[in-house]
Amino acid sequence: MMPLKNYLSTFFLFLCVFVMNTGASSVDQYSFAFRSSVVYGSQTNDLTIYMSTDFNGGSTIEDISQSNWKDITAMATLSSGSPFVGSGNLDFTPFVEQGKALFIAFKYSAPATPKPTQRMWRIQSMAFKHNRMPVNLSDWLFINHKDNDENVGWENNSKGIQYRSRMTKKKTESWAVVQILLPDTKPIISGRTVSFEPPAKSADKAYVDKNKSSSDAGVTQEYLKKIMYDSYLKNGPNPGVMQQLGNMEVLEKTKQDGYERWHVKYKVDTDEFSYAYILLPLNIPAGAKLPLMLCPHPTYIFGKNRVVNLYDEPIKDRTDSLKRLSGHYGLDLVQRGFVVFAPDRAGYGERRLLSNKGFKENMAAFSGKMRERYPKFGLNGKAVWDLQVGLNLMLTYDFVDQEHVGIIGHSLGAWDAILLSALDDRVKAAVINSGGMVAYLPELWSDDQTALRVYLDSPSKQSLTKNVNIMLMLNASRSVFYLFSLRDPFYKGQPQLIEGYTTIYDYYKTNNPKKQADISYLLHKDGHTFYPTAKAAAYTWLEERLMTK
Predict the structure, then answer these.
(1) What is the dihedral of CA 129, 133, 138, 143, to 10 degrees?
(2) Chain-centre distance of CA 170, in angstroms?
(3) Which residues make Cβ contacts (< 8 Å) with residue 400, sequence separation at least 6?
């Protein structure tokens, strides 16, 4: 048995250690950590990390400039390649001031270059801790310079945030700002996320309880459409303008093998023209009405020419041959008995403003000119508007069946297809190939609809790929056919339609007036293409839905 003297000595030693440890913990410790990865491009010194205690929460670069920001980049270890690298623990103890808000920002900035060398940064596993306990973060606030190209900037992904340069050559500046939700400080950036991988079940419950709607009414299709209208069309021309645009002017009619090609010109605004090709099967019987296919083109400087297989130069090489093969779906469809409408997108074909420049420069130039009149109108909304004008005019022809209208697109054209079909009920069937990719967010499809309501009411959280979730919901009453390849270079491994297909299929069954889901999905092996096997499946699918028996 240990002598009493030894017991007392041991107890005294324990008491001293306890007091020392307690005293040490009385000094609050704050730390921040994250993991980073960088891919593509070659520019250096493009990512900077800042902290601030006086940011006003505004959404412009001017708001950023009016605040004091301390560069803390040197405190962190950043990745130099695609593997994710831990930042180490950044000591934030000196930056925390009692009662003052605390913000952390990731700034991407890069100079203009003649080649697309800007990079894609991914930031995830962000954790801010107070005495080793997680502290919640606000939602992310993304702020882009007004001169950035459309959709170039920071965005949310499934595990954090990422900067998407989208191969821009322009000078860019983009900020991702988050508030650390410290006790006794006022939330300045709305919303809340949990710091670093919380237990999913308890976090979901807290999220639902906090944001539960006071109304039991579900989110309606009308409300979904209003949100998408506000996102893409609200800031463009007044819809009443469509009644003032007049008819199409046929510039030329040319007979081809089995069809006739019309070159047409028409107004898409009071002082702006667009151009298109209309393809008609020969010898349409008197009184016959044929299904109409809208065929927005893929990325190609001469726009609509690719869709109708019209080129001034011979095939250059195998790559050029494959691109041509993927693009002439308009020609294929008129040979199958459809009327085809193939317009130029803004900045392409006969709508280029810079005849000696590429498609990126022309898109930027067109966007700049358009925003002189419509400062908040984007090219995606413009594409929808122009297609609607074209559809209005096509439906005036007596050989068009107004009840059997479809749209098909590859790559860039696929984005136009999913956008228009979501916003225009006259479209009954949509084929989307190698584009229109959805950043699948399972929480938006929940029967609870809490996360859906929050998303719809939070424009700062929305992005084009995330909005495809909403566009798919809006297409539930019609026929949709997605074609995609996991070998597509634009596929980054994030949750896609393949992960959400069962849930989306069930949603279509519930929300289709016929209670029958008509959404098909074809995965092929051929990358970012629209090769004959995939096209044949798409064309047969369209014939089954749009060709009258």
Answers:
(1) 20
(2) 20
(3) 289, 290, 292, 339, 394
The string of pLDDT tens digits covering residues 504-524 is 999 999 888 788 899 999 999
| Alpha carbons 12 and 273: distance in angstroms, whole number | 90
Instruction: Quote the pLDDT of residue 513.
Output: 79
Q: What are phi and psi of 340, to 5 degrees?
A: -120, 135
At CB < 8 A and 24+ separation, what contacts does 355-363 make? 358/301, 359/299, 359/300, 359/301, 360/149, 360/167, 360/168, 360/169, 361/169, 362/301, 363/149, 363/150
Q: Using one digit for the tens of pLDDT, what is the confidence trace for 240-250?
A: 888 788 889 99
Fill in the DSSP letter of residue 42.
Answer: -
The two structure tokens encoding residue 181: 């939700």
**pLDDT of 263-297, one tens digit each?**
999 999 999 999 999 999 999 999 999 999 999 99
Q: For residue 336, give both structure tokens.
A: 């199958």
Q: And the tokens for 142?
A: 């993304």
Amino acid making up residue 502: T
Q: d(Cα 456, Cα 441) in Å, to the nearest integer? A: 13
In a 13 Å sphere around the CA of 260, the CA atoms on its Cβ side amount to 10
Please provide residue 545's backbone torsions phi and psi, each rounded to the nearest 5 degrees.
-105, -25
Backbone angles phi, psi at 486, to 5 degrees: -70, -5
Q: Which of 105, 131, 124, 89 is closest to 195 using CA atoms?
A: 124
- The torsion defined by the Cα of 405, 498, 411 and 338, in degrees rounded to 10, comes to -20
Beta strand 429-433 pairing with 400-410: parallel
Type of residue found at 439 = A
Distance (Å, rounded) from C-alpha 131 to C-alpha 506? 46
